[in-house]
Amino acid sequence: MNTSEIQRVKQRYNIVGNSDGINHALDVALQVAPTDLSVLIVGESGVGKEIIPRVIHDNSPRRREKYFAINCGSIPEGTIDSELFGHEKGSFTGAINESEGYFGVANKGTIFLDEVGELPMATQARLLRVLETGEYIRVGGQEIRKTNVRIVAATNVNMRKAISEGRFREDLYYRLNTIPIQMPPLRDRGNDIILLFRLFAMQMAEKYHLPKITLTDDAKQLMLKYKWPGNVRQLKNITEQMSVLCDKREIDAETLLHYIPKDTESTQLATIAQPGQHSYESEREILYKILYELRGNVSDLRRDMNALRKQVEEQRDLSQVALTKQAEYGTALPSANTPYPQASPFTAPGNSVAQEAEAEEIKEPESLNLNDLGRQMVEKALERNGGNRKKAAQELGISDRTLYRRIKQYGLEDKEY
Question: Would the CA dihedral through 214, 15, 152, 77 be positive or negative?
């Protein structure tokens, strides 16, 4: 590790800290900079991953060429291919002119793809081709174009999990991950937390002409123990808040607690495990989440099955009424083998109202005699009750909703009684 070169880079890019993790990341960036190998920077959100590709580009033979930083998660899926690879005139609505795209404009330079894990699968295939052959085709075009671009990517996504879930191509991952660089989270950088606080406090004091805030010893200990889920970005925001809002300039632990978020996940202090010990906190938390989601799924399934069961019972009730009133209407019974409409047992759990609508559209084999009998029954009941649907439903022994569906089925909505 070239310590003097690392210190030069820190001064140039205003990088604060001397932890082993940040020094190692800078050392790898400087070693890989003279090559054209692809680099994948991995780290949590807010750790400062965007510094590394700038260091790589500025210390590479491409430093006099163009450098583009692209946030893949901020570009809509429908336009990302056009943004990256360009498009032909008239290839889609709004394409009034042709476009080179980033890979065309950045030829011989460097492209930094931030949040590369958010790329759509179709775009991943195009990117893989560029990495393997340097070739691409514009959207709406047929001509194969060449580009000589170095790609540095970054992500805060668990790429192994994304690959197993089918959200990211495994072959693209290995092409991008030629040289991996791990950016450490703030909670693992030790005294760098205090150094970064001093930097942000000084910047606020100079920018807004305020007295600089400082930390007491107990506040420093609290800062070192805090988990910092938002990493450097969160530390900067809290420092800026205290610089503007806090009346006293010396911040103690009690004051600091007012500016740290109160939710349990982010305020839990980091614990230092003893050698040979293993913490099961994360495993227990994951298990609780799985059980909670499973309980919700079971409740939804139970509700949907009850709705289906009620619908089947209503169908059978109406058919039973038809059987009992056969003598009154003098209509032949359907054969014993005539199937009754039933809900499919393969209906997927979901919204119960939508399932009732789907079940209503299912066309089961039904006896013509039973259809005629049902129509006559409903007509007679409505006539005897002067068109009062509620009373007619009570006489037939079915629900108001079932009667309404039968009226609609038999085309009796506009009939007067």
Answer: positive
Q: What residue has token string 């913490």?
A: 279
Model's pTM, two decimal places? 0.61
Q: Which of 3, 25, 1 is nearest to 183 (CA)?
A: 25
Pairing of the two strands 250-251 and 135-137: unpaired
Residues with Cβ within 8 Å of 399's Cβ and at least 6 positions away in sequence, in order, are: 314, 393
Given a contact cutoff of 8 angstroms between Cβ atoms, the answer to whether 111 and 154 are in contact is no
What does the pLDDT look like over 125-155, one tens digit per residue?
999 999 999 999 999 988 999 999 999 999 9
> Three-state SS string across 30-97, please?
HHHCCCCCCEEEECCCCCCCCHHHHHHHHCCCCCCCCEEEEEHHHCCCCCHHHHHHCECCCCCCCCCC
3-state SS assignment for residue 136: strand
Whole-number Å distance between alpha carbons of 109 and 338: 75
Which strands make up the sheet holding 150-155, listed edge to edge?
67-71, 110-114, 150-155, 39-42, 179-182
Tokens (6 digits) for 354: 């939508």
Distances (CA, A) of 195 to 83, 224, 254: 39, 11, 21
- For tokens 């000589």, name the residue: 148
**What are 255's two structure tokens?**
């004051």
Please provide the size of the chain in residues: 417
Do strands 250-251 and 150-155 pair parallel, antiparallel, or not at all (unpaired)? unpaired
211 and 181 Cβ atoms separated by less than 8 Å: no
